[in-house]
Write a structure and sequence with these properties.
alpha+beta; 6 strands; 2 helices; about 120 residues
Length: about 120
């Protein structure tokens, strides 16, 4: 539900009624419910944008699970992965799989891996 839809429901209940008539309880209730639902929708949208992170040590040629510190509701998110070998050099990373709880990657050398992710809006 959009802001404009909620506003239209409120206007219909309060100022959009015929002149000289009382606000109808059912219309007032619908407006209040629309406000609460819109507020909940905004809360969910903003609470869902928390950045997730994952850390692990990768072994050369072996699949490595980077498990998010909090699972996403689905796999609609963007992520960035960085890995460095023991000398601090960046490593090549191959993506194997992506799910709501983790990404699976593989490297050609042993490496320390770090990833961050945010959900799509």
């Amino acid at each position: 539900m959009t802001y404009q839809q909620v506003l239209n429901i409120i206007k219909a209940a309060l100022t959009g009624r015929p002149a000289g008539t009382k606000v109808q309880a059912k219309d007032h209730e619908a407006a209040e419910i629309a406000i609460v639902n819109y507020t909940k929708q905004l809360f969910d949208a903003f609470s869902g944008t928390v950045v997730r992170e994952a850390h692990s040590n990768a072994t050369a040629g072996v699949n490595c699970d980077l498990v998010w510190n909090a699972a996403f509701t689905d796999s609609n998110y963007s992520y960035i992965v960085n890995g460095f070998d023991a000398d601090g050099n960046p490593v090549e990373i191959q993506k194997i799989n992506k799910s709501s709880t983790k990404i699976v990657i593989r490297t050609l050398v042993n490496a320390t891996m770090t990833a961050i992710a945010i959900p799509y809006q």
